[in-house]
Design brief:
It contains 14 helices and 2 strands; from the N terminus they run H-E-E-H-H-H-H-H-H-H-H-H-H-H-H-H. By secondary structure, it is an all-alpha fold. It folds into 2 domains: about 40 residues; about 240 residues, Orthogonal Bundle (MetI-like fold). Strands 1-2 form a two-stranded antiparallel sheet. A hairpin with a 7-residue loop joins strand 1 and strand 2. The relative contact order is 0.13.
């Protein structure tokens, strides 16, 4: 085939390729990129949905940072939740995965039992835990009472409401997707490394610290990055487990995205809500960049 013929064939292949991917590109542009650009523009306006947007410049951001105590309260609540759920959501599933990586009889049954809580819808799980943590007749306080311990008020106490949501979230995460990721990673660690360590007389902790954890570092980085992103977007648990989704008691569970929801769909301040969304995007972007900067060089890709 001549050079001109090959060039023509390549052009036809390229056109066919673009034709196949064009629907996906158009869908992405209309359903993702378009709303992203629109929300950025709306963040500089006052828009109550009922009337046309009014351009107010940086007023939404000024109000947010300097005149809205609930903004800082919601950010603090979210940081509190993140500070506990990300480490626990990384360590606990890893320990569960190590247990489920054992070679014992009936292991598929154990793995299924551990994974079941993660497939329970968050709304259903939240309702279930409202009953479990009920201070009067809940299962959790009943068990504590057997040992002579007076259970806390949980969702009725500003002090215990956030720990209650953390406990409920961890229940769904312990045997969830992170556990599956770690389990797949553990099964990919070469057995020869452990055999060599056994020949050198290495103990269990030494093998885990010097072989398992370095080989699992890419999985840790992935789950940490995704864990931070998901933790900053906590919403459903607080919405379902508090009265009318108000983030109570005394705004103790008013997480960032829940407050954003209030601004957008209860107070109809779409401009303010869009500004909050972009602040959240910047915060997540910065934290993700820091994680890659600090941990990226420590990751062992085998």
């Amino acid at each position: 085939m001549s050079g001109a013929g090959r060039s023509s064939a390549r052009r036809r292949e390229a056109l066919a390729c673009y034709g196949f991917i064009m629907p996906a590109i158009l869908f992405l542009a209309l359903m993702a990129v378009g709303p992203i650009i629109a929300s950025f523009v709306i963040s500089f306006t006052y828009w109550d949905v009922m009337t046309p947007p009014q351009w107010i410049g940086l007023e939404n951001y000024r109000e947010m940072f300097f005149h809205d105590p609930l903004f800082w309260k919601s950010l603090w609540n979210t940081l509190y939740f993140t500070a506990f759920i990300v480490p626990l959501g990384t360590i606990v599933p890893f320990l569960v995965a190590m247990l489920l990586n054992s070679r014992i009889r009936g292991m598929p049954i154990y793995r299924t039992c551990f994974y079941l809580p993660s497939i329970v819808p968050v709304v259903a799980g939240s309702v279930l835990w409202l009953w479990i943590l009920n201070p009067d007749f809940g299962l959790f306080n009943a068990v504590l009472g057997v040992f002579g311990i007076e259970g806390p008020l949980w969702m009725y106490s500003p002090k215990w409401s956030k720990p209650a949501i953390i406990l409920m979230t961890l229940w769904g995460m312990a045997g969830g997707p992170n556990m599956l990721i770690y389990l797949a990673g553990l099964q990919g660690v070469p057995r020869s490394l452990y055999e060599a360590a056994d020949m050198d007389g290495a103990r269990w902790f030494t093998r885990v610290w010097n072989i398992t954890i370095p080989m699992m570092s890419p999985y840790f980085l992935f789950t940490l990055v995704m864990g931070f992103i998901q933790a900053f977007q906590v919403f459903t648990q607080a919405y379902v487990m508090t009265t009318r989704g108000d983030g109570g008691p005394i705004d103790s569970t008013l997480f960032y995205v829940l407050y954003l929801y209030h601004k957008a769909f209860r107070q109809f301040e779409m401009g303010y809500a869009s500004a909050m969304a972009w602040v959240l995007f910047v915060v997540i972007l910065i934290i993700t960049g820091i994680q890659f900067k600090l941990l990226g060089k420590r990751v062992h890709y085998g």
